[in-house]
């Protein structure tokens, strides 16, 4: 139940990610190079310069982030002048940064220089720190959960469609049909999963949807084997023989009578495949052939910062690693619970 609640929270976070993130720009990609690789809890004074283009506030920006956002400039100090604000850029090295003047006409809501500090200068805190490009790590993590959950849902859906279809056909008809499908299953099974995913990804191209399809096309084998075995057992039951004697078509018998009584193990496998899909996607992103920058991915965040483990800032790689571990563990625990609940011998 705890894992289920955790997954429900993760799903809600994935859906409303941009409403929860401090950085609501598209892909949480607001960069501040002067404050890169800062520790969790770091705070800095931020000068916000509105975009010349009107900011988006529609439904699309609520779910997918704003394409046109205000520019944020980290500053260490500022002084109000007659023409606007004179700000000293944040350097982080103990020395004063460059000073730059910002006129009042850059700030639509400020009618006087004094109102700039009230409306456009604030203290910004980074709860999980910043990455090597100065982006808010918390925002990247929250948006990145979409990739992990989406890859699980799509990959499991593709694997179920292919696996259940081929497994049911092989188990029901048997003979040469079964031999042909089992040959395909065994050939696919013999190829290492990650190697097959890499080959499919390179053939389809690097990108978001290509990874989904590639992972889904490699996870159907186990589903097909289990469904085949279940169908071979269920088709011997008397109610299936009665359905044949009534003249029902093979398609109806498989769909209405056999599959509903053979789905319990498939549900358990789906939970395990969900966890495996998350791990495979993280590995692909770590190798650089998964979700492409600037799209945030937990595997991609680890790839960008794994070298920081020996540079004194291991949290940049540990935080996404713990997130992947917790999500995969939750799915595995749910899979174990489903196995106990659907096991006839223990019920």
UniProtKB/TrEMBL annotation:
Membrane topology designation: Multi-pass membrane protein
List the Gene3D superfamilies hit by this protein, alphabetically.
MetI-like
Main location as per UniProt: membrane
> Source organism's superkingdom?
Bacteria
Instruction: Give the signal peptide, or none.
Output: 1-19
Compartment list: Cell membrane
Give the residue spans that cross the bilayer. Answer: 149-173, 180-202, 208-227, 262-289, 315-338
Q: Which PROSITE patterns match?
A: ABC_TM1
Output a single Gene Ontology CC term carried by this record: plasma membrane
Keywords recorded for this protein, A-Z: Cell membrane, Membrane, Signal, Transmembrane, Transmembrane helix, Transport
**GO BP, one example?**
transmembrane transport
Give residue ranges for domain ABC transmembrane type-1.
145-335
Protein name per the record = Peptide/nickel transport system permease protein
Q: Which organism is it from?
A: Marinirhabdus gelatinilytica
